[in-house]
Structure formats: C-alpha cells, structure tokens
Amino acid sequence: MPFNATNEEKPAKRPRVLVVDDDKATRRALELILGSEFDVTTLESGNKAVDHIQQDMDFDVVSLDLNMPGMSGIETLKEIKQHSPTTEVLLVTAFQDIESAKQALKLGAYDYIEKPISKNAYRQSIRQGVRRRQKALVSEEAQQQLKIVKAQLVHSEKLSAIGELLAGVVHEINNPLAGIMGYSELFLLKEPSPEKAHKYVKNIQQSAILCQKIVQKLLAFSRKQKPKREYVQVTDIVESTLELVEHEIKKNAVKVVKQFADNVPRTSADSYQLQQVFLNIINNAVQAMKQQTRLGTLTLISEFDDKAIRISIYDSGPGVPEENLQKIFEPFFTTKPEGKGTGLGLSICNEIIREHGGNLYVSSELGSGTRFFVELPITEPDKPSPTVAPPDKADQMPGSKKILVIDAKETGYDLLENMISALEHQVDVAHDASSAKLKLQSENYDVIISNMNMPEFSGQQLYEYLNQVKPELLSKILFITGGVISKEVGRFLEKNRLPFLNKPFGLKEIQEAVQNIEKI
Ligand SMILES: Nc1ncnc2c1ncn2[C@@H]1O[C@H](COP(=O)(O)OP(=O)(O)O)[C@@H](O)[C@H]1O
Ligand SMILES: [Mg+2]
What we know:
single chain; alpha/beta; Rossmann fold; Helix Hairpins; Heat Shock Protein 90; 5-stranded parallel beta sheet; 5-stranded mixed beta sheet; 16 helices; 17 strands; 18% strand; disordered N terminus; binds adenosine-5'-diphosphate; binds magnesium ion
C-alpha cells in the first residue's frame, strides 16, 4: 500500500472559534480551554475582530468579551452579525454587566457566560454555538436547493404549456404558409400582369409577416428569460396571452368576452411571468369548458382602484368541487389524466403573483363555472417610463454607407445584397473566409454584416480576426442570427456587447440596425 494512501481521508474540519478579549491572560486561558477541540484564533479588540470577520466569514462561534476599551462589545456584536449572519456569538461578561448581556441577546447573541469562567460550562456553550451554526448552514443550503428546484419546476410547467401551444401554432402557420406557396406558384406559372404580380407579392408578404408574428410570439414565451421587472400594462399582457391561445379558443368554439377598463395604470412586473400566469388560468378554463357539451364563454375583466389592478377570468365550465378549492393551488394536484396535467400550474401562478406583491383568488360554483382573480399592486412611476425616442427624420433617411455582407449561403447574401442596395447603400459580398479577409484588409467599410453561423468563419472567428488585424472595425460588426441563439453564442454577444439582428427581418429593421452601428 502506498505510504500516503490513507491521506485521502481528510481529518474532519475542526469548528472554528474566534476569541475576542482585551486581556492577554484571559485570551491565553480561553485558548487553552478550547484548543484541543476547536481551531482557535484570538484577537484583542472589537475593531480587529470586525476587520477579521470581514475578510473571513467562516467562523462558527465568536467568544466576545462584552466590556472592552475601544469598540464596545455590543457594537462589535452588531457588526459581526451584519457581516456574517450565521456566525454565532457567545458573550463573556462580568456580573455587573448582566443587564447589557441580556440586551445583547436581543441583538442576536445566542448566550452569555459569566466571569470567572468554568472550563466545562464554557466548552459546552461553545459546542452549543457550533451546533446552532451548523444547523443554520444546512438549512441555508436546503433553501438554496429548493430555490433551484423551484426554478426548474417553473420551467418544466412552461415547457408543458409550450407543448400544448405548439400544436396550435403549427396549425396557425399552415394558413399563411398555404398563401405563400399558392401565390408564389401562381407567380411562376406564367408571367403575370404587373397588377397581378403586385397582388401576388403583396399576399406573399402579408402571409410571411403573419408567420413571423406567430413564431415570434412562441419564441418570446419559450425563451428561458432571467426574471426582469419593467413597467407594464397588464391588460396588454392579457391580450397577448389570448393571441397565444387563439387557436385553442377557436377550435373549442369558446366565446370570449372582454371588459377592459380604460387607462389601467401600469405596474412593475415581469411580463413573461405574468403571461405564464394568464396562460395557465386561461388554458385551465378552456380545458374545463371542453368537457361540457354546451358552448363555453370566457370572460376577462380588468378593473382598478387607487391601490391595485384586478384581472378577473371567468369560465362557464363545470366548476371546482368545494373540497378541492384549496387543493388546486397545491403543487402536483391535478384532476387531469397523465400527460395532460402537471398539477404545477396554479401553484406556480400563486408563487409568481405573490412575488409581485399581489394575490390570486378563486371562487367556484359547481355547474356554473369558476372565477380566478389576479390582483396586482399599482406601482406606476411618477414620471412616465422612458420610451425609446422615435428616431429623428435625418436618421431615417436612407444614406450611402459602404457595407460588407459576409454569408456563405446564396439565400442569405442575395437577399441582404438586394435589401441593402434598395436602401441605397453601397454593398460588397464575401462568400467565404478567405474572400472576407481579403476584402476586410483592402477596403474600409462603415458596416460589416455577417452571418453568425458561417461555416469556417463563425462570428467568434470574425471577431478574433478583426481584433488582430483591424480592431477599429470591431464596432462596425452587425451579426445576423437564425432566431434561436445558443448559450455560448449568447454569452459571446453579451460579453462583447455586439449588436445582432434576428431572422426574419425587413428593410426597416436593417436600416435601423445600420443606423445604430453608425452611432456607436
Ligand atoms: N377553470 C377551472 N375549472 C375547473 N377546474 C379547474 C380550473 N382551473 C383549475 N382547475 C383544477 O385545478 C387543478 C390544478 O390546476 P393546475 O395547477 O393548473 O394543474 P393542471 O392544469 O396541470 O392540472 C386542475 O387539474 C383542475 O382540477
Ligand atoms: Mg394548468
């Protein structure tokens, strides 16, 4: 057996204790009492203790003399608790200081011990502090774990909602797609008259825009977003959620009644999270009404007073039995068959609304329907939130910039080349890495538009190349991406603050992106 084989088993870490006392002999005595069992550090003043704790928060227990010159024991206690809340503090006090020791207990010390100190009692007290800290750490870790699991559950409920939406979206896309295919075929069949050609292309354009909207709605919802608060108009979010489920609603012939108050104040909220809430409530309602033979009605109402906004969502479904009314908010409670329901929807809705400082209620009557109420506090800013200023006229004027397009695919560069020419810019095209490098070296460009996913010349490679040979061009890059950005690419774009344009885009988007590059 190799000599150091047993070294792999590390000795258990000894609990760490910081002894703070202005008297040298006491420090030495306490260190001797604890030394065999604990890893002891000693310091002679409150100031030093606080400095030390700021650097190293991993002490289990601080043994703190209450009566010291300089920073008082009470002050030291407050500071220690502020910097390292889980570190436990034991006060060491003289008889005449018992009252301040009691006061210190209220400030977070777990116990006090009187001088002269009995060895055993002191050791016991320190052990008690260590146990307390270790318990607190375990529960802190459990809280962290719980937070992670919760976030995963929220996402899994969202994925299940997306799965349901997908069927509807595919169906919705089929209509405009049929238009695009039909009209383009007609166009190519025989040379159409100019009026007909215009009509066909107009139809193709409108259908394509519809496809774009449908895909964008789904992408926006499904993207794993970091929660972020903005001032939002809640009724707009209800409307956009209705758009998402439009297909399900139509398919089940559900009548939608909207009663939205005018001028609903805005509130600070995460619009995607709220959309997730409304989506689940509306989906639940539609699913409940589906079970009935009579046609259903979904009623959406928005109202507000000076403190809160209330969105009510009524359905005319079978209702929730009294005994289930509280249970429906519990995680995993579902009455739906496996594969249909996760039972997570309402518990997540509840959590999201609570995080927004609001409330979610339900009332139901068997046989006549269910009502959900979402209440959110009004938090309108004093000043209107800054909206993006409309670009001034000069900005919108097409200008003549020299632009290099880098894309290997004909469908990519041909379209870009034509669009950029239509905007009256000068355009140059590179189809591969070597021609791109040649052009970049020999010419000067105002803007470089490059496909992020070029084979042999990815966005990252282009960036690296320019960084070495012409760093002044780094601020001229505009990337084109396919709509779904991988984590790695997302990090690269964010880290280097690089502008990008998602496919599909129109002339207006390109022009705006080009103008923005110029402003950098
Ligand atoms: N509008 C409604 N009408 C009748 N029952 C409902 C309604 N909304 C929710 N429920 C009940 O609450 C349960 C839990 O809902 P939810 O938490 O969204 O999970 P899931 O939809 O996955 O079952 C549903 O299974 C259903 O029994
Ligand atoms: Mg649900």
